[in-house]
Design brief:
Largest sheet: 2 strands, antiparallel
Order of helices and strands: HHHHHHHHHEEHH
Strand content: under 5%
Distance between the termini: 86 Å
Number of strands: 2
Strand order of the largest sheet: 1-2
Helix content: over 70%
Oligomer: single chain
Radius of gyration: 31 Å
Structural class: mainly alpha
Length: 376
């Protein structure tokens, strides 16, 4: 009897402890649910209190996505004119200079009939790989030397920040120097004709860049190929001047648009629309003016890089047939003097009509994007 009473007491004690645990667990669950409900209510109150902030954030994201998408469309639809422009620049034997865009339409039609529509995007993969390599190298150099990859436009207003601007430009120059063999290989992929049925792969692009870097092309019979070390200084100077000029023009266009469109200092939904659109317009205007100013120098640089590479281009006079590149420039000054003597000053602007068509298309895209911005 004693033992039975003792075990009954133990059983009652365990039941009491279990019931207490159940009650405590229920209290914890109820407390957790109440806290969760409070947080949800707080978030609802925040959304209800700050709808303008939510709308501004949505406008920023939408405007940024639309801006990136429009830039990609501009690059995609403008690329065929880059292909045609560089072929015109390289053709030192051409009779038609195509300085105005109207003479290009028969050539475009005949090339399309003979080689198909995709011929105008040859070298697109190499160009994307080149741009990706530039971004990657700039990121690596930024981490190594601790230089900001993107320059701040406000730094141009402060005289004390010229040191930061100069270091940023040096970073750009160093990235151009490292990727210079890739530029040479990309030039080849852009202008090499598809009429012979030979298609170039990414491995051929990387192989050409490696051979240009180590100079193994010279030992394989390309006697007129200029060594890479002779192209470093003029090429880096060309890319640096083009980048600095574009940044300078973009900065001043942004200041003009800021005053003209009455963009407020305080960021709002309406001002964000104006900022994104003004950035697109400033970028395309600055790019066009930079390309116009640097066009003769681009002709010289492209010819020097492709001399001796046994590249065959399309005939830009008739649009039918191919033309081999046969030049023998010894240096930058020799190239300038030879073009002026044999082709005249117009030889520096061969294919300028393709540049005009390129920016007409890109400007039309920006104009089409404007109504979409206004409806965001």
């Amino acid at each position: 009897m004693v033992f039975r009473h003792f075990f009954n007491m133990i059983g009652n004690t365990e039941d009491d402890e279990m019931s207490k645990k159940v009650v405590s667990n229920q209290d914890i669950q109820n407390e957790f649910l109440s806290e969760l409900a409070c947080k949800v209510n707080n978030y609802d109150n925040i959304d209800a209190i700050n709808p303008k902030e939510k709308s501004d954030n949505l406008a920023r994201i939408s405007g940024f996505a639309l801006g990136v998408g429009s830039l990609y469309i501009q690059e995609t639809l403008g690329y065929p004119f880059i292909v045609l422009r560089r072929q015109c620049q390289l053709n030192n034997r051409s009779i038609r200079y195509h300085i105005l865009p109207f003479s290009l339409f028969p050539v475009l039609t005949k090339i399309h009939q003979k080689q198909g529509f995709g011929v105008f995007w040859k070298g697109w993969g190499s160009s994307c790989l080149l741009n990706g390599s530039i971004i990657f190298i700039e990121m690596v150099l930024t981490e190594v030397v601790h230089i900001p990859r993107q320059s701040n436009p406000n730094q141009m207003e402060a005289k004390k920040n010229w040191k930061a601007v100069i270091t940023h430009e040096l970073l750009k120059g160093l990235s151009f120097f490292v990727t210079l063999p890739l530029y040479s290989a990309c030039f080849v992929d852009t202008v090499q004709t598809n009429a012979l049925g030979e298609t170039r792969s990414v491995f051929a692009f990387l192989g050409d860049a490696f051979h240009r870097l180590v100079g193994s092309y010279t030992s394989r019979g390309h006697g007129r190929l200029l060594p890479m070390y002779t192209l470093i200084f003029p090429s880096v100077i060309y890319f640096m001047v083009r980048y600095i000029l574009k940044s300078f023009i973009t900065y001043h266009f942004m200041r003009i648009n800021k005053k003209r469109l009455n963009i407020e200092e305080q960021v709002s939904e309406e001002s964000m629309k104006k900022i994104y659109y003004s950035e697109l317009m400033s970028n395309i205007c600055a790019s066009f003016l930079t390309e116009v100013f640097m066009f003769p120098f681009e002709t010289v640089i492209v010819r020097l890089h492709l001399q001796g590479t046994r590249t065959i281009i399309d005939d830009t006079d008739k649009g039918i047939g191919v033309v081999p590149l046969c030049t023998n420039y010894g240096s930058v000054m020799d190239c300038i003097k030879t073009i002026r003597r044999e082709e005249g000053y117009g030889g520096f602007f061969k294919g300028f009509g393709a540049l005009i068509l390129q920016y007409v298309v890109q400007s039309a895209i920006v104009k089409l994007v404007c109504p979409i911005y206004n409806h965001l």
